[in-house]
Design brief:
Length: 398
C-alpha cells in the first residue's frame, strides 16, 4: 500500500503485508539532520476484529514517535567534533556570502588573537574560563575595550555557528561577562561646523592640498566612509542634480560594494561642489579624489599622515579619527532637525538603531516650554490646586 499523503513534515503512514500475510502499519519521517527514519507502528486491525491498530490509532502513534524523536534529538549531546576554532572559522567563511573585507577581518581576528590563545584546542574544550583569560590577556596588552569586544564577538559568532552545525552542544558565551565600555569609548566624537572649515583650511600645502581640502569637506558634508570616498569616480557625481551616488568602496586596496551593500544617493552641498570643481582629473572613470601625479585613488597611508598633520595645524585633537567626520555629518544634521529616516537613508545605515545614536543632538531649545505646557492643565476636580498654573488656566478653573 502506498504512503498516505500528509502535510509536509508530518511523516508518512504506510501499510505493508509480509510474506506470512501479516499486515502492519509503518511510519516514515525525516529525523535529525534529514536522516530518514522508518519504524513499525504495530499490526493493522483486520475488518471485524478487535486486535491491532486502526488507521486513526496508527496516525496517533506516528505523531507520538515523531515528537519523541524530535525531543531526543534536541536533548542528545553533540558528538565531539574535534574541530579547532580555526577550522570552524574557515568553514564559516566559506559557507557565508561575506564581503572580502569582512572575511579578511575574521581571518585577522583568528590569526592574530584567537588561534594563538586557543591553539589546537578543540572547540569542545573552549569554556568560559578560557574566554575570560583571553579577555584579560588582550586588555593587559593595552587594547581598547571596544577592540577586545570586537574580537570576542567574532569568537561568539563562530561558536554559535558550531552549535547550529551540531559540532558543539552549547556555546559557553552565556557565562562570559564582557568588559564594559568606558564612557570615552561610547561617546560619539564630531567636529562643529567652524572646526570642519578649520580642518579644510589646514590641508597641508603642496601638491595634495586641493585634493585633501576637498576630501575633508566632502567627508564631513556627505557622511561617506573613507573607502567610499576613495572609490568615488566622476561617473557617480551629478553636478546638475547636485548629488553623489555611492556604488563603490575601496577596502585594503580592493574595490568592493558599500558596507551596507546598498547603492545610496546623497545631496552635495554648495561648499562641496565648489571644492570639487578645482580637480584636474574629471573624466568619468577618474577618481574624484585622485593623486595629482598619477590620477589613481589617494593612497590611504600618506593620506592619513597628512590628515593628522592638518588636525594639529588646525588646533584640533590629532587623535580625532577620519571616521569621526562621518559622525560629524550625522550629528550636525540631527542638530539641524533633519528627520531620522532621512539621516538613515543618506548615511546608509542598515539598522535604524545606528542612526538613533545621533538623534540626541536634535534641537531641544523648546523642550522646557513643552514640558511646562504639558503640565499646565486644568484640575478635573474643579478646584485650582496647582501652584504653577498658567494665568489663563487659573482663570478657566475659577
Amino acid at each position: 500500500m502506498p504512503a498516505v499523503r500528509r502535510a509536509y513534515g508530518s511523516g508518512a503512514l504506510l501499510k505493508q503485508t509480509d510474506k506470512a500475510g501479516r499486515t502492519s502499519y509503518y511510519g516514515k519521517w525525516r529525523g535529525a539532520g534529514g536522516v530518514q527514519v522508518k519504524r513499525k507502528l504495530g499490526a493493522a486491525r483486520a475488518p471485524g476484529t478487535a486486535d491491532g491498530l486502526t488507521k486513526a490509532q496508527a496516525e496517533a502513534r506516528l505523531r507520538e514517535l515523531i515528537a519523541q524523536s524530535a525531543e531526543e534529538a534536541r536533548n542528545a549531546p553533540a558528538k565531539p567534533s574535534g574541530r579547532t576554532l580555526g577550522e570552524v572559522g574557515e568553514t564559516y567563511i566559506a559557507a557565508r556570502d561575506l564581503k572580502g573585507s569582512t572575511a579578511q577581518d575574521y581571518r585577522m581576528h583568528l590569526r592574530a588573537h584567537l588561534e594563538p590563545h586557543f591553539a589546537d584546542r578543540s572547540i569542545d574544550a573552549i569554556d568560559a574560563d578560557a574566554i575570560n583569560e583571553l579577555i584579560a590577556k588582550l586588555l593587559a596588552r593595552g587594547l581598547k575595550v571596544k577592540t577586545v569586544r570586537t574580537y570576542v564577538t567574532t569568537l561568539s559568532t563562530l561558536l554559535n555557528y558550531a552549535v547550529r552545525k551540531r559540532w558543539l552542544k552549547a556555546s559557553p558565551m552565556g557565562e562570559v561577562d564582557l568588559p564594559p565600555l568606558r564612557h570615552d569609548e561610547e561617546a560619539l566624537r564630531f567636529l562643529r561646523p567652524h572646526e570642519v572649515n578649520d580642518l579644510a583650511g589646514a590641508a597641508r600645502p603642496g601638491a595634495y592640498e586641493v585634493a585633501d581640502r576637498a576630501l575633508y569637506l566632502t567627508a564631513a558634508l556627505t557622511g561617506l566612509r573613507q573607502g567610499e570616498l576613495r572609490g568615488l569616480t566622476w561617473s557617480s557625481i551629478d553636478l546638475t542634480a547636485q548629488r553623489v551616488t555611492v556604488v563603490d568602496n575601496i577596502v585594503r586596496g580592493q574595490h568592493t560594494s558599500p558596507k551596507s551593500r546598498k547603492v545610496r544617493s546623497i545631496p552635495l552641498a554648495p561648499q562641496v561642489l565648489d571644492e570639487l570643481e578645482a580637480s584636474r582629473w574629471t573624466r568619468d572613470h577618474d577618481p574624484v579624489f585622485a593623486d595629482p601625479a598619477t590620477g589613481r585613488p589617494l593612497a590611504r597611508t600618506p593620506l592619513m599622515a597628512r590628515y593628522r598633520k592638518a588636525l594639529t595645524t588646525a588646533g584640533l585633537d590629532p587623535a580625532f579619527r577620519f571616521h569621526d567626520l562621518r559622525h560629524t555629518f550625522g550629528t550636525t544634521l540631527a542638530a539641524e532637525g533633519v528627520p531620522e529616516v532621512t539621516i538613515q537613508e543618506w548615511m546608509g545605515h542598515a539598522d535604524r538603531k545606528t542612526t538613533a545614536l545621533y538623534m540626541h543632538h536634535r534641537p531641544s531649545a523648546d523642550d522646557a516650554s513643552r514640558i511646562g505646557r504639558a503640565f499646565a492643565l486644568r484640575d478635573p476636580r474643579g478646584t485650582n490646586r496647582g501652584t504653577n498654573m498658567s494665568a489663563d488656566t487659573a482663570h478657566e478653573v475659577t
